[in-house]
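Data card: per-record layout.
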Amino acid sequence: MYVEKIKKEGSPPRAQGTLRLSTIGDGEIQELFQQGAAKVLFPRHKNRLEGVMINTSGGLTGGDEFSNIITCKNRSLLTLTTQGCERIYRSCDNTSALVENNIILKGSSSIFWLPQETIVFEQGRIKRKLKVELSPEAEALIVEPIIFGRLAMGETNISGHFDDMVEIKLENKIIFLDRTYLSGNISKILKRPAVADGFSATALLLYKSEKAKSFLETIRGKLNTKSGVSLISDDILVMRLLAPTGYDLRKMLVPIINEITDKNLPKTWRL
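The structure for this 271-residue chain is written out next.
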C-alpha cells in the first residue's frame, strides 16, 4: 500500500508518510525513498546498519496514513527503531490512523525491528498491520511494545479503538498470525483475567533464528508471572509480556532485547 494524498473539503489536516528502504550486503543502502512525514536517519554503527524512523508530525490521529516497505537482501544486517514512543492521539471525527509496515527478508539477511512503545491516548484510534516475509535462511527479531493510557496524566480508564495485526510468512506460508482488537472501553476490557488482568502495558516479541532455542530458559528467568515465552518451532521463539506500567514493561523487555542482540540495543532506547 502506498499512501496517496487525499484532500477533503472541510476536513482537518492529515499526516501522511511513505518510506521505502532496501539494503544489500554489509550496511549498503540500495534504495531510499521517503515522502511526507515519514523520515529515517542513519546514525553511525560499528556492526550493522541502523535506521531511526521519525514521524515528523509528532504522533498519529484519526485519518493519518503511513506506509513503510523494508527489503533486506544478500546478507544485509539492518536494525530499525524509532526516535521515541509513537503517540496515538484523540481522534476528533471517529476515524482511525492507518499504519502498514511490510518487511521482506531475502537470502541470509537479518533485521532487528525494534520500534519503541506505541502509547494509546484517551479516544485514540488506530488500525495497524505488520507483515513480514522470511526466507529460510533469514534471521528476524520483531518487537512491538504497547501502552494503553498515561498513568502520569491520570489516564487510567481509557476508551478508543486498537486494531493490530502481525503476520509472519516463511516461503509464502503463514507461520505466525496475531491480532489484537480492542474497541470501546479499553481499560475495562484489559481488566478481564483472560485478557490482561488489569495490566496496561504489553509487548510481543518474535525471534526467528537457529539460535532461538538457546535463549528460551534465559528469557524465562527474566519474566514476571503474567508473561510467557515458548518455541513454536526449533528456530522460532515467541514471547508475550504483560506489565502494570510502561516502566515495568521496559525493565523486563530491555534486558531481553540486549541479550538477543548481543548488547546492540539502539541508543534511542537508552535515552
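Known properties of this structure: Residues 41 and 52 are 5 Å apart (CA to CA). The longest strand covers residues 173-185.

See the next section for split statistics.
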